[in-house]
């Protein structure tokens, strides 16, 4: 999704946490290895949690051809060189190396994981990309505008699994399992029920550490997706939605909260490092 001043509107009003080591409150966090322990033991401390994030995969399972399959790396002397990148193999390697040595590491995506995909993924309604992300160990993702390319019913199938209603199953005797990670759509509600079509937030838990993730997409998604793709849906203000569910998470005692928002933006530098 291209960046525009309108799409950067919410970014100016919401402080989002991005890809470095971040502090998370761990109330009574123990070290027994039991994930999700709430730990009300009367003392508190903070721990460093690594947050890794990527977005706009668009079903690109293989590296793109030519210069599109490289990124720029700045050398110590100020010169630059092209580094092969793109595709799930390079992504998997980068994630594995980044996670090494980090006791607490969470991987979150910012949407457009599927949709506008190359034939290798798009021909199979992006099932291969979802299965790849399952193997990458993705913990959570917000929905982007392209998650709605085939409509909300198909998005729910991507989350929950099942064979495609028209094309069926692609392997005999094998049912598509769906995404192991939660797709979050806090600001997308059904016109009939008024409720979010997917989970609005999730709480990542590991050894007593709890971090809330709220996922929203562009309020203007209907302006960039076909009418059929957003039929029966209502898209709400991003900031109001994030604030609403932040309060809900705080009432649950979650003190570290990350907003995953699929909005336009530009990198600070042409070099990935």
Structure in words:
This protein has 273 residues and is α/β, with parallel strands linked by helices. The protein has helices at 9-13, 88-99, 119-122, 127-136, 152-160, 238-251, and strands at residues 21-27, 44-54, 70-74, 80-84, 105-109, 140-142, 183-184, 188-190, 201-206, 209-217, 233-235, 256-262. The longest helix has 14 residues, at 238-251. The protein has one domain: 4-Layer Sandwich (Purple Acid Phosphatase, chain A, domain 2), CATH 3.60.21.10. 35% of the residues are buried. Residues 2-23 and 26-42 have low confidence and may be disordered. The protein has 6 helices and 12 strands. It is 20% helix and 24% strand. A 5-stranded mixed beta sheet has the order 1-2-5-6-7, covered by helices on one side. A 3-stranded mixed beta sheet has the order 9-10-12, with helices on one face.
CATH superfamily: Metallo-dependent phosphatases
Measured distance between first and last alpha carbons: 23 Å
**Sheet with the most strands: spatial strand order:** 1-2-5-6-7
Helical stretch tally? 6
Count of strand segments: 12
What share of the residues does DSSP label as strand, in percent? 15-25%
User: Can you summarize the main beta sheet?
Assistant: 5 strands, mixed
CATH class equals Alpha Beta
Structural class: alpha/beta
* H-E string: HEEEEHEHHEHEEEEEHE
Shape: globular
- The name CATH uses for the topology is Purple Acid Phosphatase, chain A, domain 2
Total number of distinct structural domains: 1
- Averaged pLDDT, please? 87
- Unreliable spans are 2-23, 26-42
The second-level CATH architecture is 4-Layer Sandwich
